[in-house]
Structures are given as C-alpha cells and as structure tokens.
Write a structure and sequence with these properties.
By secondary structure, the chain is an alpha+beta fold. The chain has twelve helices and seven strands. The strands form two sheets. It has a five-stranded mixed β-sheet with strand order 3-4-2-1-5. Helix 6 packs antiparallel against helix 12, helix 8 crosses helix 9 and helix 8 crosses helix 11. The chain starts with a helix and ends in a 5-residue tail after the last helix.
C-alpha cells in the first residue's frame, strides 16, 4: 500500500488498540514544509480524545501515544487535555499542526471548534520568541565554520521567515516554506538562491556540505540582527473557560465523533 494509506491504517489501529478517537492527524516535518528529500521521514502528529472513564480515574494515564514503524514512519499523538494545555501557552508546533497542508484524518466538527479555541489562545510574543530561539540555535550549531551543511540553510531560513511573518502581523506562521518565501522575500538573487537550494534538496537524498552561499549568508546575518532587536508586546495567558468548555463537550460527544 502507499504511505498515506499505511498512515491512515496505522491511526485506525491505534484507535482500536487504545480505545481513543483521533480528532486530527497531519504531517509535521519537511514534507509539510515543502522541502522533503526523496528519503525524508514521515512525521505524523495527531490529537486524540479518550472516553470519559479514562479521565474519571485516580490513576494518571500516559497522555502521549508514540509509534516508530518501518519505512521511516514516526507517529506521535497528544491526548486532548495535554494538547489544550499546550495550546493555552501558544505552543508553536501545535499551531503548525493545525495549519498543515497534509491532513491524514480529521473529524470536521471537533477540528473546527479546536481551531476556534486556538485563535483565542494565540500569542504573538510566545510564537515569535520560539522561532527566534530556533533560528539562533541553528545558526550557532551549523554556521560557525568555513563549509556548512547546505540543507541547514533551510532550517535557519524557516524560523527567520516565521519571525518576519509574525512581526508583519500576518498571524501564525504557515507550515509551507514557499508561502513565506513568496510573501516575504522580494524577487532577486536571494530568492533565486533559496529556490535553487530547495530544488536541490528535493531531488537529492543528501545535499552535502559546501562553501557558504554568499547571498543567503548575508540575508541571514541581516535578518538575525533585526530579529534580535525586535520588541514584541507581551500577552497574558488566556482564560481557561473556552478550553474547558470545548474539552468537556468533546468528551461528552465521544460516541458521536
């Protein structure tokens, strides 16, 4: 069977084995970002809910389901209460999941309400600082040398562009890298070199190392200076009421999901 069929079959198996119901499942890695290589892993992330009795217990149950399967298939899910707690803190990966262009499973009514609650919890500040920290870490880890792993440019550019997207008031950063490139980088040598690098990564299992790409290197250095000096207004944690309401309703509707 093809990979998408295998992934959906795996999610159904997880539901049967654990008694949960998967509310939403998507691709979260380079395949969703749009610069996957021929041998890239499959990074499936999902949110699930358990029946009411699972919650009405004095025992604390594990709130994560993980499966590492052949064919580089990495499947990991968060229980709904865990997901909502992280959402309240404006967890950027969770917002990316909800905006993934590759969706494997979705229960529409629950997902629509989940997205509405997510909009109430979104924090520009927390998401911006998450991506800024990611950009800083990747620059530190990969670019303090004469030759660099060329594909790592993409792992620096993506959080930089996410910061620019957020600072421009465009809301949560999209997963698709090319969407941010098209919107935020003007036509010219930088955009051309980035597009060439993406094309190289998509057709090769290993891009390898090489001399620094001058145009991209200069762009990164300039943008990091801007990102580091930006002042993003803070925002308080949202009230728990809407999250509690959605959580209780989803459990009550478990049999109808």
């Amino acid at each position: 069977m093809d990979m998408e069929t295998l992934i959906r079959s795996t999610l159904v198996d997880i539901e049967r084995e654990t008694g949960c119901k998967v509310i939403y499942a998507c691709e979260s890695g380079s395949r969703a970002w749009g610069f996957d290589s021929p041998d890239s892993d499959w990074d499936v992330r999902f949110v699930y809910v358990q029946p009411a009795d699972w919650y009405l217990s004095i025992v604390d149950h594990r709130d994560v389901i993980e499966r590492m399967l052949p064919n580089d298939l990495d499947v990991s899910g968060w229980e709904l209460r865990k997901a909502l707690r992280l959402m309240r803190k404006s967890n950027p990966p969770f917002y990316e999941w909800l905006r993934s262009p590759i969706v494997y499973m979705s229960r529409p009514s629950a997902v629509e309400q989940l997205r509405q609650v997510a909009n109430l919890c979104y924090s520009t500040e927390r998401c911006y600082y998450h991506y800024r920290s990611m950009a800083r870490g990747n620059v530190r880890d990969y670019f303090d040398r004469e030759e660099v792993p060329l594909k790592k440019y993409l792992y620096v550019l993506r959080p930089i562009l996410a910061c620019k997207w957020i600072a421009a008031g465009l809301g949560p950063a999209p997963m698709e890298f090319d969407t941010m490139v098209e919107r935020l980088i003007p036509h010219g040598i930088v955009k051309q070199d980035i597009e060439a690098l993406v094309a190289m990564k998509k057709r090769a299992s290993e891009v390898g190392t090489g001399e620094k790409i001058e145009s991209i290197q200069s762009f990164i250095e300039s943008e990091m200076a801007t990102i580091d000096s930006a002042a993003i207004p803070s925002s308080p944690l949202p009230e728990t009421g809407p999250l509690d309401q959605f959580f209780r309703k989803t459990i009550a509707d478990f049999d109808n999901l």
